[in-house]
From TrEMBL:
Required cofactor(s): pyridoxal 5'-phosphate
Residue ranges of coiled coil: none
Protein name per UniProt: PLP-dependent aminotransferase family protein
Protein family (similarity comment): In the C-terminal section; belongs to the class-I pyridoxal-phosphate-dependent aminotransferase family.
GO MF assignments: DNA binding; DNA-binding transcription factor activity; pyridoxal phosphate binding; transaminase activity
Species, as recorded: Paenibacillus lentus
């Protein structure tokens, strides 16, 4: 006993000794009222300093796990842990509800593509961490902690950190949004925002309309909330309005979900004219719109296109979900919902009931980073690098891949379509054997179609691997086409 103790680098040794002895007590190896070795004896047995053992004993006594008898030594205290309770074993899978089972079934992290070491992976559309502005993030943290550190480490407010709320309102106003009658709620990223909105809306028809294809996470959450999802085909400048109007004329929907800018997965930016026509249709049929502000800042060419919520003017029918996850740092789980103030009033209560509030520390770091004027500087650098990678990926696709359509006006990915009848699932199997993986496009479709498509995420792939990987995909695709 005691000689199996091993020191882990990076943690105080006395804490490790304390935790080791506590485990022996919990497991019953050290029994209540059993005398412990002297500090000198135990230091020799565990090969640590005597002062380390003294500190560990002090900590254990403070926790009520040992007691000392003057002149006699230290003893294990009586612990209120029962080791004789009946064994309770349950089959948890049988106790899962349909929502939990569906979530597991659609979990790509568990059932998606597994990358072996050395594989060239085009599956990620996360930002490249090598571009992260660590120096200014650290500065923002220190600046904010110096101002109100005690406040930031305590409980915050469900609605969010007010300085950040005010700053984000200004940010949205600069996008052309009329803030009259609107308010803003801070969330744990885009996904919580969508979940809160879907939880709040009355399910009158049990149906949602969206683009087809669309964001897989959105499809997953819509289905988890019990909605039937109807997808409308995409055209080169956005959703097919003629098809949309036909569907709207014969079916009622609880809401619509759209990604007008740098659409995931196609990368298409909806034209300004089409945005106006879309909002006219939504107004005519009185359908609330959930707008996903995905990748809005990653524009590589052309002028800025205002979001749908800006086109809506003083109207209150658009719910905007914003996040900097694909632009700045996804590790800071901060997103927002901008919508009618009455809706935000109810979302705030839902948020408070479910997660109390988003990390005030995370919010304050983002606030200070933005306040210090770092966003524009970072975006210039990020845009330049991602644009270069985007153009390089396009050139490689054009050189090596027998596609029928290549889309993507910006962002961190391209969407590839092959001839009708082509199967990218078969292509993926072939490419995986050759050390390359990508995201098959069918996961983004609401109706099980899209087998001839795939998404290429390039943000975290080196130039050399972009070319090598696309060459392998192209060669494998040509083999399947012959």
């Amino acid at each position: 006993m005691y000689q199996d103790f091993k020191i882990t680098a990076g943690r105080p040794v006395y804490v490790q000794v304390k935790e080791y002895l506590k485990r022996l007590m919990v497991k019953g190896v050290l029994q209540p009222h059993q005398k412990l070795p002297s500090t000198r004896e135990l230091s020799e047995l565990m090969n640590v300093s005597r002062n380390t053992i003294i500190s560990a004993y002090i900590g254990l006594e403070e926790d009520g796990l040992i007691y000392t008898q003057k002149g006699k030594g230290s003893y294990v205290a009586q612990m209120a842990i029962s080791v004789t309770a009946p064994l309770l074993e349950l089959n948890w899978k049988e106790r899962m509800n349909s929502q939990a089972l569906l979530a597991e079934e659609m979990d790509l992290m568990k059932h998606g593509i597994r990358a072996e070491r050395g594989t060239i992976s085009f599956t990620s559309i996360a930002p490249n961490e090598k571009l992260f502005d660590l120096g200014n993030v650290k500065r923002a943290f220190l600046d904010r902690m110096a101002v109100e550190g005690e406040v930031l480490l305590n409980y915050g407010y469900a609605k969010g950190y007010k300085p950040l709320i005010d700053l984000l309102k200004q940010y949205m106003e600069q996008k052309g949004v009329d803030l009259t009658g609107k308010d803003l709620l801070i969330t744990n990223g885009f996904t919580e925002g969508l979940d809160l909105v879907l939880s709040a809306l009355a399910k009158r028809n049990g149906a949602v309309i969206c683009e087809n294809p669309t964001h897989h996470t959105a499809i997953k959450n819509l289905r988890l909330h019990g909605y039937e999802v109807t997808g409308i085909d995409m055209e080169r400048d956005g959703i097919n309005l003629e098809q949309l109007e036909q569907v709207l004329s014969r079916q009622s929907f609880d809401c619509a979900y759209f990604i007008p800018s740098y659409h995931n997965p196609t990368g298409i930016v909806m034209s300004p004219q089409k945005r106006l026509e879309l909002m006219r249709l939504m107004t005519r049929y009185q359908i609330p719109v959930i707008e996903d502000g995905f990748n809005e800042e990653l524009r590589y060419s052309g002028s800025h296109v205002s979001p749908l919520i800006a086109a809506a003017g003083e109207g209150n029918g658009v719910i905007y979900l914003g996040s900097f996850s694909k632009v700045l740092f996804p590790g800071l789980r901060v997103g927002w919902v901008l919508a009618d103030q009455e809706l935000i009033y109810y979302l705030e209560s839902l948020k408070r009931a479910r997660s109390i509030h988003t990390s005030t520390l995370d919010q304050s770091i983002l606030y200070q980073y933005l306040l210090n004027g770092n966003l524009d500087k970072y975006l210039r650098r990020a845009r330049a690098e991602y644009k270069r990678k985007y153009e390089w990926t396009r050139r490689c696709c054009e050189a090596y891949m027998p596609y029928s359509l290549l889309t993507g006006d910006g962002g961190l990915h391209l969407f590839v379509s092959f001839a009708e009848g082509f199967d990218t699932r078969r292509l993926l199997e072939l490419c995986k054997q050759r050390g390359v993986i990508f995201t098959p496009g069918d996961i983004f479709y609401t109706d099980g179609t899209g087998r001839e498509t795939l998404r290429l995420g390039f943000s975290r792939v080196s130039d050399e691997n972009i070319e090598a990987g696309i060459k392998i995909i192209g060669e494998a695709a040509k083999e399947l086409l012959t």
